[in-house]
Amino acid sequence: MKEFKKIGVLTSGGDAPGMNAAVRAVTRTALARGVEVMGISRGYSGLIDGDIRPLGLRDVSNIVNKGGTFLYSDRCLEFKTPEGMAKAVATCRELGIDGIVAIGGDGTFRGATDLTAHGVPCIGIPATIDNDITSTDTTIGFDTAMNTVIELVDKLRDTCESHARCNVVEVMGRGAGDIALHTAIASGASAVVVPEFPHDDDSICKRIKKAREIGKRNFIVIVSEGVGSDYGPALTKKIETEAGVETKFARLAHIVRGGNPTLADRVIASKMGVYAVEALLRGESNLVVCEKRGEIGTVDINYALKLDRMYKGTLKDGDLDPFTEDQIQSMKDEIEERKQGLLALYTVENKINL
Ligand code: F6P
Questions:
Q1: Where are the CATH 3.40.50.460 domain residues in the chain?
Q2: Which of 98, 114, 130, 178 is catalytic?
């Protein structure tokens, strides 16, 4: 079995609160096992440029509570080219980096599986506020982002109540309505619109109109970014015209990606960081750390990536060829379970929304 003397850690893609806690856990777990740790700055860009420094115990002090990522992040296009990959592999050879823990979303995992195929074993840790990694119930940063959303929406509700207004609030989630569905329930929204379910704008307007007629003053409508950037502003105008309620639009955007991580994110990031290093040092690679029903484990990166494609309906010819019938069935089961989970949230929201 390969003996690990030195590993690298990087954060890549959109940042997520809790990434620092994961880097800290990775660093401390490896150091405790006598393995050196190199902090790679700006994701795969830092690996290509050699923007890398050793991390000691104290270098990861005082970051478990901090948002963003102290290693910085990047979405690196060069890494997708053969030249970029060659430079990254050469950096690993020069610095004696035996393996890498890559923290991020699906783009990060695509990079990690390519790097593994080029002889640098990698393990991925899912960190994205969107919670759009199908193989895990929870991603690092999701809980913090949701809590930030409800804190902000609570403030909007105060002023809506004072002025008898409606506020349409767009929340992040590139193709996933997870943030929107949870926060709509938790903030007592009057309606929620997500890409996973059809929406009926006329019925939203009618319900708001009727509720105004019987005295309701404030209305919050949560819209997921995944529905499209023009949708929220258009719905705002429609509600104002058809429900007769003054309506404002707020796009929360990147503000919900910052801030100190919640307890839940700090804990899951720490658990995943420890698990990733232990798996890497056991000689495992090309895996994504996952949390399923409270248990931390791993799945093969290729399985995780194809599962995501199956979920999003973007599978390409031959994508499923490497998998057995049982594995394909288990992908279908996981997707069904996830869809049922979202439907359950949507149903609850619809039962209590006005
Ligand atoms: O990290 C996920 C995410 O926040 C999405 O919700 C959003 O669409 C995207 O990243 C925005 O990314 P960028 O940092 O490139 O603006």
A1: 145-258+341-352
A2: 130
pLDDT single digits (tens) 21-75: 999 999 999 999 999 999 999 999 999 999 999 999 999 999 999 999 999 999 8
154 classed as catalytic: no
Per-residue pLDDT tens for 143-191? Answer: 999 999 999 999 999 999 999 999 999 999 998 999 999 999 999 999 9
Residues 6 or more apart in contact with residue 167 via CB below 8 angstroms: 153, 156, 157, 160, 219, 220, 221, 247, 248, 249, 250
Residue range(s) occupied by CATH 3.40.50.450 in the chain: 6-141+261-315
Q: 174 CA distance to ligand 1 centroid (A)? A: 7
Closest residue (by CA) to atom 14 of ligand 1?
14
CATH class of the region 6-141+261-315: alpha beta
Distance 213 CA to ligand 1 centre (A): 39
In degrees, rounded to 5, the angle at the alpha carbon of residue 29 between the alpha carbons of residues 295 and 259 is 70
Which residues have any ligand 1 atom within 6 Å of their CB?
14, 128-130, 172-174, 225, 257
Q: Which atom of ligand 1 is nearest to the CA of 172?
A: 6
CA distance 60 to 238: 50
In the reported structure, the alpha carbon of residue 8 is separated from the centroid of ligand 1 by a whole-number distance in angstroms of: 25
Quote the tokens at residue 134: 């199908």
The H or E element that residue 109 is part of is helix 106-117
pLDDT digit string, tens, across residues 269-322: 999 999 999 999 999 999 999 999 999 999 999 999 999 999 999 999 999 999
Fold of 145-258+341-352: Rossmann fold (3.40.50)
| Confidence at residue 185, expressed as pLDDT on a 0 to 100 scale | 98
Atom of ligand 1 nearest to the CA of 132: 2
